[in-house]
Every structure is written in structure tokens, then in C-alpha cells.
Amino acid sequence: MSLMSVLLLGASLFLQTLAKSPVVHSKAGIYHGRYLQEFNQDIYLGLKYAPKPVRFAPAELIEDTPTKHFNATQYGLDCKGYGSDTNLLVTGGWTQIGEDCLHLNIVKPRTNETNLPVLLWVYGGGWQQGATSDPRYNMSYIIQQSVLNGKPVIGISINYRMAAFGFIYSKEIKETGNQNLGLRDQRLAFKWVNKHISSFGGDPDKVTIWGESAGAYSVGDHINAYDGDNEGLFRAAILESGGAVGAPLNGTDWYQHMYDNLTVSVGCAGAEDTLQCLRDVPFETIAPYGYQGLEWFHVIDGSMIPRHGQQSLTQGKFAKIPIILGTNTDEGFGVNGVNTDEQAINQLVHSKRWNVNEEQATRLLEIYPNDPTLGEPYGWGNRTWPENGLQWKRYQSIATDLTMFAPRRLLAEEMSKYEDVYSYRWDAPKFNNTPNTIGINHFSEIPFVFGNTEQQITPLGNSSANVELSHLVSRIWTSFAYDLNPNGHGVPGVPLWLEYGSSPSNFVFRTDKSYVEKDDDRMEGVAYINRLVR
Questions:
Q1: How far apart are CA 82 and CA 89, in angstroms?
Q2: What angle do CA 362, 439, 473 make, to 5 degrees?
Q3: Rg of the Cα atoms in the chain
Q4: 442, 444, 445, 470: the active-site residue
Q5: 350: annotated active-site residue
Q6: In terms of DSSP bridges, do strands 116-122 and 69-71 run parallel, antiparallel, or are they unpaired?
Q7: Distance between the two ends of the chain, CA-based, in angstroms?
Q8: Under 8 Å CB-to-CB from 87, ≥6 apart: which residues?
Q9: What Gene Ontology molecular function terms does this protein carry (predicted)?
Q10: Catalytic option among 140, 213, 423, 470
Q11: Angle between helices 341-350 and 392-400 (to 10 degrees)
């Protein structure tokens, strides 16, 4: 082949690629995305839903710029996080960190259908870390399954501020009304989607918000927010390992010393206006101190978070929408080193993940006896792990029920009085190269739900059973987003997932054979926990 022929062929291929590159004209702007041939998808990355926010202040919806062109082919900056996941993403070159981080990403299948339903992902990470650039949250695979099932949906993932940048609280913050900034970021992203997704072929009236762990707690907060006024921003929700009651709603007594430590760390302790000083210091100066030993959580602010979640649920002051929700068999939120009743009570009373007093902690020990056959991990019989503590299995059970299992049942019971609810228990282990994994832990379902067989951070594994279960759950989630029916997955031989209101039960996801079980485990303990205001 002559040089001229090679050049002509190269030019032709370039023009074909260019012709396939998607462009969307919207009121927000003109977005130039990327075409993923292997998935037959158009992706638009790093779309700003808010300009760079003022530190420790609410973000604002970005202004429309209908004639401005945007390169939407790469992820934008991710928000500052703290923890092993953040370190891994930074060192692996997957992410770059900065304060101008309020972006979202859109994955759209190439289809002639219009007004597609939307599945909107809110990542977890304890509200302290997480990023949409994390390859474990690559939405191309789950969106591909929606197309193969004949029920195509659009996938969206959003960034939001975390740790002190998103959840700082103190008397100074309270006086300015700047609480729950990370949740307000999320709500702002929902509003951008509601305003602009139609330009991308999506239906703003068919948005399902979806999250895991802190992402699911966030979804629960949006269900309870503003006494249940969802502002028409979403019609359904999926909550994995989190709910509408969770993460303690602590007051300024809990957070004030954290705020004060932050001012000391960056040289603002002596300032006349410490909050303004914290805003003025360089990002590089304050970034290392946004998480100092204790986590920043959501707080009651009287509007978005009007009261404790349990109170909103029992008073019926929440958005009445269809939901999927569930927990993993062994969520595992206990701590090591619990050997005696006294140590267990001390841990329960002083934990940063729930609020119980000594009387309540004592009652929990009565309901959850130190019997290894009853403890978590469940189904392991008499086996114990004394190196983790002589009461480790007992404490694991109490911790999981306080944080996950009991709130899941409460939300299922209350929401099913108004709308269709589908509850599950995840009982399939994530692939792990080490023998130290005990039980079906927190995060176990994520590799299956997203189905990314290429990422090796938390790998799915290449067994046919794992891949088949991944396809099933991906199709269930997207089928629910498409027409609010999780049973429209098109996979033969799968039992009918029963609506919770007609049959309080859980769909149990397993790699061998999934099944349906009654939701009647640990009734006494769960009932007691759900009477507590935490």
C-alpha cells in the first residue's frame, strides 16, 4: 500500500470516528461527547451542574450558556475525599482532586427511543470518600444490559462534596445556615438533570435515584427531605445497604471540637471570623485536615433534614415512591476487641455510627445473647474468631442491625403502606484473592451490580455463575428504572420478586440459585431498634 493510500485510509477512519462523535445542543450548552463503539453508547463526562462553590457554602445551579461549546470527553475533577479508596484512585491515576468538582456524567445508549428513563447513581464511602471516576462505578456495563433486555435507560453519576467540605457543622455553621452541603449538592445535581436531561433523550419525569452505603443513606435523606416533597425530581429509588434512618444525627456538641480542631490546624483559631478564615486559606493548606479521626455526617437543619429519619417514617412525612432496598447478609460494622459485656456496652454507647445510651445498650445485650450460633456472620455455626474478640459475633449482629438491617425493615414496612416496595438480601460473596473474607460483607454486591469485568480493584471474577448473577441484578435494577417492575429482567428460571406489602419477604441473590424468603429474622431485636430515635 502506498503512502498516499495509508494517509487516505487514516483520514477516512478519523472522519468516521469524528462523524460518530456525539454532540448535544441544550440550554445548558453544546456538549461534545465520546462514542464508545464496544458498547454502542454516547458518553458525556465532566458536565458541570454548578460552578466552583464557595467553600463551606451552598453551591448554586450553573447558568445556562446555550451557545457555549464544552469538551465532555474526560472526567472532571473529583471532590476531596479521605481514605483508602481515594488514595488508590489518586495513585492509580484515575482521578484528580480539586474544589471545582461539582460535575456529573451521562451514559446514553444509541437508540431510536426517546424520553428514556434515567438511573442516577450516588456513590457511597461514608460521606468521606468516593468519586464518579472510580472504575468500579463505570455505568457502561449496566446500561448495556438494559439495552440487551430491551429496556434501555440512561445512566448518570454525580459528584458531591464530602467530609468537612460537604458536612462541616458547628455553631458557626449553624448560624449561617450552611449545613448538609453535600446533600444539597446532590439535590442541585437532581435539579440540573430535571432541567436538561430531555436534551440528551431522557425523561425528567422518570428518574430513579440510586445509591449504596452513604449513597443509599443520601437517597433516604432525599426521600425524607422537606417533609417528603421530592419536588418532582425523582419517581423511584434504589437503596443498597443504607436507608432513611442511618448515620447519627449529632448536634454541635459532637462536631464543635472537630470544627475547632480544623481552625487550629490551618491557623484560623485566633481569627475574628473563623469561618471566613477557613474559606480564605489555600486549598492545599486545608485539604489535609478535612477528616481528622471522626466522620462528618448529616445533621438536622429544620428543612432538608427536618427531624430524625425514624420520626419522618413513622409520621408519614416522606416521599411516597416505589423503591428497591436491601442489605447484605453480613454487613459487618462491628469492631474488634470486644470480649466482655462491659466492653460491648462501652463500644455501643460511644460509637460514632449510632446514638444509644447505657440503658439501651444493656437491653440490646439481653436481646442479642452471646451465642455464636446466632451471631454474625450468619450460617457459620459455632465457629468463632477469638482473635477478633470473644463477643465479636454478638457485637457484629448488633452493629449490623443498628446500621442496616433494622432501618431497612422499617422503611420497607412504612413505604409499602403507600407504594410498591421490593426488599432483598444479598448472599453472594465478592470475588477475593485472599482467604480472610468472612461472610457476605458490605460492598459485596457492587462488582455484580455494575458488572465491570475489567476493573481489578474489587474484581467480579470470571466464573460463569458470577457473570450470570451480574447480568441478572443489572437487568433487575434497570428494568425497575424503566417501568418500575423488577421482574421484567427477561432471565428464565428466576422466582417472582414479591411486593413487600402483600408478602413481607426478601429476594435472596445467590450465585447458585436465588430464592424468596420471609422477612422474619431477628424480629425482637429489630423491633426494639426501630423504636429508638437515633
A1: 11
A2: 115
A3: 24
A4: 442
A5: no
A6: unpaired
A7: 74
A8: none
A9: hydrolase activity
A10: 213
A11: 30
Q: What is the mean pLDDT of residues 72-101?
A: 96
Q: CB neighbours of 256 closer than 8 A, spacing ≥ 6? A: 170, 171
Q: Of 364, 243, 253, whose CA–CA distance to 309 is shortest?
A: 243
β-sheet bridge partners, residue 328: 426
Instruction: Indicate if 342 belongs to the active site.
Output: no
- What pLDDT score was predicted for residue 353? 87
Helix 341-350 vs helix 358-367: angle between axes, to the nearest 10 degrees? 130
Phi and psi for 27 in degrees, rounded to 5? Answer: -65, -30
Is 331 an active-site residue? yes
Other Cβ atoms less than 10 A from the Cβ of 314: the count is 16
Got the DSSP string for 11-71? HHHHHHHHHHS-EEE-SS-EEE-EEETTTTEEEEEEEESSPSPPTTS---PPPP-TT-EEE
Active-site position among 331, 376, 445, 499: 331
How is the beta sheet containing 23-25 ordered, strand by strand? Answer: 23-25, 30-32, 69-71
Q: List strand residue ranges (DSSP E) for 144-225, in order.
A: 154-158, 202-212
Q: Which residues of 79-91 are buried (b: 16+ CB within 10 A; e: fewer)?
A: bbbbeebbeebee
Q: Could you tell me which CATH number the domain at 3-529 has?
A: 3.40.50.1820
3 state SS of 116: strand
Q: pLDDT (tens digit, 9 = 90+) per residue, 397-434?
A: 999 999 999 999 999 999 999 999 999 999 999 876 55
Q: Binning pLDDT at 50, 70 and 90, where does residue 2 land?
A: low
With vertex at residue 56, the alpha carbon angle to CA 53 and CA 59, rounded to the nearest 5 degrees, is 30
> Does 12 or 84 have the greater pLDDT score?
84
This prediction has a pTM of: 0.96
Longest dimension (CA), the chain: 86
| Cis ω for the linkage preceding 51 (within 30 of 0) | no
Cα(427)–Cα(510) distance, integer angstroms: 5
Contact 439, 133 (CB under 8 A): no
User: What is the spatial distance between Cα 329 and Cα 428, in angstroms, rounded to a whole number?
Assistant: 9
